[in-house]
Amino acid sequence: MDLKQLRSFLHVVETGSLSLAAKRLNLTQPALSRQIKMLEEDAGSALFIRTGRGVVLSEAGEKLAPRARIIAE
Predict the structure, then answer these.
(1) pLDDT band at 1 (very low <50, low <70, confident <90, very high)
(2) pTM (2 decimals)?
(3) For range 30-35, the mean pLDDT
(4) Distance from the CA of 52 to the CA of which of 12, 18, 20, 41 falls in 20 to 30 A?
């Protein structure tokens, strides 16, 4: 788990979309998806629930988000 992954995670949280967050970060969507996947592997749990309209935080994501905000400041 690194700072870049946490910041990427927070952008996805804020936008609710991998593609919008990728645009904001000047990344491709597959590159951002890989970062999130690595973060999920480190966390040992899915952080997002994928929907037809984007993503929403899972229970694990809800727990990580406030901590990630503190770390990313």
Answers:
(1) confident
(2) 0.92
(3) 96
(4) 41
Six token digits for residue 43: 């966390």
Q: Alpha carbon of 13 to those of 61, 62: distances in Å?
A: 9, 10
Burial of 21 per CB tally in 10 Å (0-12, 13-18, 19+): buried
Q: Which helix (H) or strand (E) holds 55?
A: strand 54-57
pLDDT at 69: 95
Burial of 9 (0-12, 13-18, 19+ CB in 10 A): buried
Q: 60, exposed or middle or buried, with CB in 10 Å at 0-12, 13-18, 19+?
A: middle
Closest Cα partner for 1 from 32, 31, 34, 40? 40
